[in-house]
Amino acid sequence: MENAGDDDKVPAYSWYVLVVLVVVYIFNFIDRQIVSILAVDIQRDLGLNDSQLGFLGGAAFATFYALFGVPLGRLADNWRRIRLLTIGLSLWSAMTAFSGLAKNFATLSLARMGVGVGEATASPTAYSLISDYFPARKRATALAIYSSGIYLGGGVSLLIGASISKAWDDAFPGGGPAGLVGWQAAFLAVGIPGLLLAGWVATLREPAREPDPSSDRAHPLRAFFVDLSTLLPPFTLIHAGRRGVGALGTNILVGLAMALVAWVMIGLTGNLPQWASIAFGYYAVFSWATTLRVRDPATFKLIWGTPAFITTALGYGLVSLAAYALSFWAAPFAEVVLKLPKAQLAFILGANGAIAGFLGVIIGGWMSDRLRTRIPAGRILVIMFGVVGPILPIWIGYTTDSAVVFYVMNFFAGMFGATALGAAAATTQDLVLPRMRGTATAAFFLATTLVGLALGPYMVGQISQTSGSMRIGVLSLIAVAPIAMLLLFHAYRTVPAAAASVHERAREAMGEATRPA
Question: Which one has a higher pLDDT value, 74 or 42?
Answer without folding.
Answer: 42
